Amino acid sequence: MDSILVTGNGPLSGQIPIAGAKNACLALMPATLLSEEPLTLTNAPRLSDIRTMTALLQSLGAEVTSLQNGQVLAMSSHDLNNHVADYDIVRKMRASNLVLGPMLARLGHAVVSLPGGCAIGARPMDLHIHGLEALGAEIELRDGYLHAKAPRGLKGAVVDFSFASVGATENVLMAATLAKGTTVLNNAAREPEIVDLASCLRKMGARIEGDGTSVITIEGVDRLHGATHPVVADRIELGTYMLAPAIAGGEVECLGGRLELVGSFVEKLDEAGISVTETEHGLKVRRRGDVIRAVDVTTEPFPGFPTDLQAQMMALLCTAEGTSVLEERIFENRFMHAPELMRMGAQIEVQGGTARVNGVEQLKGAPVMATDLRASVSLILAGLAAEGETVVSRVYHLDRGYEHVETKLQAVGAKIERIQGA
Ligand code: UD1
């Protein structure tokens, strides 16, 4: 298994290009199942999660061709010959459950394995099921698989989500595009990835209004056609690389970054003493002074502070002046990076969903272990600021969500390398 060696070596300087959003791409890819005509995605990120979704779609009979070194995904679901999303693929990645709504809408039936436990919390599928049942689907759990059918076709309905789940909103939104009549999603998720999905579906002929707000209205159509769509920039990758100069010093421009993707995160950076300015090509980030100030952070659905940046923000706050309180409200058990950061000298107390971080002057390099995708990159960020060498092992998590992390950080002067098979 590969590991990453980071040696703290001072300020960074230069530019980092931001890739297309993993989470947007993982929702856009299953949209191909809704139409017989080709769907092409450009600006796709090159990540193992995307390869997992490719394998899943291919197992259902879709054609997925990766072009231009993986940045273009040409897909066609003309002939779907299987309606079972197998456990062996679904267990690797929860987002596999996004094939349920589209398959049900197009074929009238679908069998999708439940994803099973995830390192960062239970993550059930009750909201997805509730939404699809409201559209008339009959769903049963047998042998660990959700068996869904809509013998009389899906029908538009009012769906009230008790929580603004990203995945449930995406699944039901896709299904509703082909349902008969009008669907209203109340308390829908407002994430930029939902807006990106809705905009792609509109190009395919769907009639959707209100995406980006908590009420989305969908007027069902008989069929969707082909389209070409560029994947929106990855706000989590953007936030992660914005933290690199915040932590290590210097100035970095994140190319393709836009303020509206990271509003609440930028507010917290500002409170901490980090300046962010818009440029012609992206966002430029540097510290305002020598001191990072402690800030309190609560994770919330968009437009609140994203849970997917909580671990990375914690890495910054480890060396802030004062005590920061981080409250995790989206996933239970999402502080697994805390004990690893403590191996590097951080002072953190975790109690339930709250972590108190008492800033220390200097982190020290140490061997640490990646426990999930965002936790792994938070350890790399911490390593940039630490004295000495940090070796992050189990980096396969990292490859699920960050393309060429070493190359991108090397380009701005970081001392970082991948150790093969260590
Ligand atoms: C998506 C993102 C993930 C991000 C998360 C929250 C993708 C591929 N992944 O995950 O990176 O961390 O949004 O921003 O886009 N829940 C239920 N029942 C359900 C569905 C969810 O209780 O049916 C709960 C989950 O357990 C969790 C919370 O709702 O506590 C948020 O989940 P959700 O918004 O659905 O996240 P995902 O779509 O899985």
TrEMBL record:
Family: Belongs to the EPSP synthase family. MurA subfamily.
Active-site residues per Swiss-Prot or TrEMBL entry: 118 (proton donor)
Species name: Pseudodonghicola flavimaris
Listed transmembrane segments: none
Pfam families to which the protein is assigned, alphabetical: EPSP_synthase
Protein purpose: Cell wall formation. Adds enolpyruvyl to UDP-N-acetylglucosamine.
Record-linked CDD domains: UdpNAET
Organismal lineage: Bacteria, Pseudomonadati, Pseudomonadota, Alphaproteobacteria, Rhodobacterales
Subcellular location: Cytoplasm
Binding site for phosphoenolpyruvate: 22-23
Modified residues (2-(S-cysteinyl)pyruvic acid O-phosphothioketal): 118
Ligand binding (UDP-N-acetyl-alpha-D-glucosamine): 94, 123-127, 308, 330
Family matches, as InterPro entries: Enolpyruvate_Tfrase_dom, Enolpyruvate_Tfrase_sf, MurA_subfamily, RNA3'P_cycl/enolpyr_Trfase_a/b, UDP_GlcNAc_COvinyl_MurA
Reaction it catalyzes: phosphoenolpyruvate + UDP-N-acetyl-alpha-D-glucosamine = UDP-N-acetyl-3-O-(1-carboxyvinyl)-alpha-D-glucosamine + phosphate
Enzyme class: transferase
Annotated protein name in UniProt: UDP-N-acetylglucosamine 1-carboxyvinyltransferase
